[in-house]
Amino acid sequence: MNIIEVENLTYSYPAAKSPILRNISLTVEKGDFLAVVGNNGCGKSTFCKTLNGLIPHFTDGDFEGSVKVDGLPTLEADVGTLACKVGYVYQDFENQIVRPTVLDDASYACLNYAMPDYIKKGRQALSMCGLEGRESDYIWQLSGGQTHLLALAGVLSLQPDVLILDEPIAQLDPGHAGKIYEVLKELNEVHGKTILVIEHHTEYIADYCKHVMLMRDGGVAWKLPTAEALRRVEELKECNIFPPQVTIAAHKLKQEGKLSKEQSLPTTIPEGKTAFRTFSFYPDATPKKKQAAAGEAIVEFRGVSASYRSVKGDDRAVFDGLNLEIHRGEKIALIGSNGAGKSTLMKMMVGLRRPSAGDILLGGESIQKMGTEQLSRSVSLVYQNPEEMFIKDSIRADIAYAMQVRGVKNWSERTDGLLARFRLTQLQERDGRLLSGGQMRRASLAIGIALNPQILLLDEPTANLDIATRKEIMQTLSDLRDITETVLIATHDMQLVCEWAQRIVVLCGGKVVADGPRDAIFGDSALLTAVGIRPPEIFTMGQALDSRALCYTIEDFLHHFKELPQ
Amino acid sequence: MKKKLSENILDKFSIDFLRNQVLKNAYGNDDTVIARLDPRILLAWYLFFGLTPWFVSDLWFLSACFLLVLVTTVLARVAGLVLLLFAVGVFTQTGYLLIVSLFFGGDASTIIPLLILTLKVATCSLASVTVFSGLDPDRLSNGLMWYGCPERLSFSISYAYRILPMLMEEFQNILLSFRMRGNAPAHDTFFGKIRYLFYQVKIVMHAFYPLMLNTAKRSRTTVEALEIKGYRYAAVNKTVKKMKLASLRVTYNDWLFLSVSFLLVAVAILLSTLF
């Protein structure tokens, strides 16, 4: 049975010149788990909003064709009726939560639609999302992943048949991301919900979704079973979608003629194990060259403790006696789950947060005695949320601001240089907030290095970006290597960690639990499980084939795994 | 100590601290005696103690009322910042007059009227503090709704508390951007300090523009989510109102609270007629 039937849907936003959705016809079966993929701006979110009636009931525009959900035409039903059939979780889900406590928010919609058993429905939704026991908590006590689950529970309480999630895991660490998908899987399999996700992470699509729909220029290019869809490597790459690394590796091997034509491309690790069964691992003949000795320590954390004020009861400790040394010229990745204190550590280094005990030394001097203005000459922090760095009305003014007020000579030329380096010259008069995700990120990086800091701190530089933009930012980051001596990145993005970092610091429970080069961290499987790190897929693939293999990139993998001579 | 005092206002009075105090004030004391009272009873109680002191000038009566609201304020465990604001408020309203009049040869005849005025202001303020700070915003808005205040007002109250911490965090980050990238004037000398203060006030004002734009960007999702969650339906639906108010219940404690208040006022009136 089809739960969603779309016929010849064409839609354009008010005052838009051309339609954003063009002639879409589609059916989705009840019980499907469908991934919607496509380039940025191809109309994925717009399409999903036609399903719950926000378009055209809330946002006007030219709407042609018909959309039926569970046999009900959306043009005839109102938003309330449709909300009981289709639930929608936004990408910026925290703005979707309107009530202060957990149970309150979960049952709020049911209350508004005057359902007498609203509390019970809210509780049921919470237990489906694994939030039992948190009913009376306040929403700011939840972690990022739990907040997402709450947003999901809020729409689930109306017991819709269809759930739509816009990039559910973009802001989450791998542990929480896995949890979200496990919940979705159960909703799909046990409770029979039809689920649509807009998703860039093809590893998750391969593991969880049943079908994939590719959108291109406002139309549906195709809808296929997941495995078949992910094997269309070239077509996906044209739309800036990157298939799982295992698939890409196999695809390359096939192109080089090293994998037989009959072998279908693997999309998951178990499939990869079968596909690569004839391959074996060839270690490097020459031992890796030793890393250059570390420079002198420029930042030292000595027994640093820090805590947050809590609304009730005792303060919550983030660090308790943290010790860490950062040396000149190092490229460090700081990893750990949401709430492990990565951002706090960075804020302490720029003096925005003072430690409650212990001391932080910068170049041998305690930063307690330095003001923020003085510190920011040597250390620069780029926030996770670039919007908070835009304090002027154009990005040119934003980049120039720090140099201008400090009377840096030839600040105007330097601004021109930075704009050109980050490919922002065309956009220089625009307000930063109105740029696309990748452009905002580039602008915030330009602002961060404007004062030529000795140490650059980047908080989640690749979060919330689609894979293509992420690759672009990673390129920008490697270009930065030569400009800024010492760089520290806090991130969940293990591909970035593997390809960029020389040293990895793992934070967990307010302590440094591991510290070393990537082989030491990713080679320690007990540590990975304990802290909840999910290495890049190709690394896991290599490990599954041979435990000696430490392949961080597809190139590494292709280099080290060769077919046995017959 | 001197050095600490001269540290800048943003350090002393950080947004982080403010945010914490707002949250503490709204939700940090939901397990107190006052918070467990029925909001309707408490609002009626407030109506009495917020209004009558203005019309009565009897010292006995006013002192008794003041003592009572002082006790309820303690019971409500009001956040420190609110109490500080209260103290500053009362002092600037009338308290300073009391001191000034003493300096310039005032005697009992000047002190008594001023004391009465101060007591009036203090009683009303503390009664407000007890009710509006002791109740969490949701119970407060339910109580207001029962008395017929529009749904929109009560939603606004609880939503304001939901959004305020987020706004403050955003504001804090924008201010930090200014601090990291700006160049504050040196503040070792007295004039430097004054310049520095002006600089900081200027920064706070400048920070509003990005804050507003960022908030506008966020609120799009919230507006759509409210629409989906049926906020507009509920606003005109009588059944929903009933369901919301069904959780309100007058208990034994409420009557006890009212009786104690009543008894105290009665005793005060009795005393004032006796003496």
In total, how many beta strands of chain B?
0
Helix and strand element order of chain B: HHHHHHHHHHHHHH
Oligomeric state of shown chains? heterodimer
Question: Measured on Cα atoms, how large is the radius of gyration of chain A?
Answer: 25 Å
Q: Record the strand order, biggest sheet of chain A.
A: 6-7-8-3-9-10
Helix content of chain A: 25-40%
Main β-sheet description of chain A: 6 strands, mixed
For the sheet with most strands of chain B, the description reads: none
Please provide the count of β strands of chain A.
22
Shape of chain A: globular
Largest interface: A-B, 59 and 55 residues
Number of domains of chain B: 2
Approximate helicity band of chain B: over 70%
Principal-axis shape of chain B = flat
**Mean pLDDT reading of chain B:** 82
How much of the sequence lies in strands of chain A comes to 15-25%
Number of helices of chain B: 14
End-to-end separation of chain B = 49 Å
| Low confidence ranges of chain A | none
- The helix-and-strand class of chain B reads mainly alpha
Uncertain runs of chain B are 1-10
Structure write-up:
The complex is a heterodimer of chains A (about 575) and B (about 280). Helix content of chain A is about 35%, strand content about 25%. With about 575 residues, chain A is α/β, with parallel strands linked by helices. Chain A has a six-stranded mixed β-sheet, sandwiched between helices. A six-stranded mixed β-sheet of chain A has the order 17-18-19-14-20-21, with helices on both faces. In chain A, strand 9 and strand 10 form a beta hairpin. In chain A, helix 4 runs parallel beside helix 6 (about 145-155) and helix 5 (about 120-130) crosses helix 6. The radius of gyration of chain A is 25 Å and the shape is globular. Chain B is mainly α and about 280 residues long. Mean pLDDT of chain B is about 80; it is low at about 1-10. Chains A and B meet through helix 3, helix 4, helix 14 and helix 15 of A and helix 3, helix 10, helix 11, helix 12 and helix 13 of B.
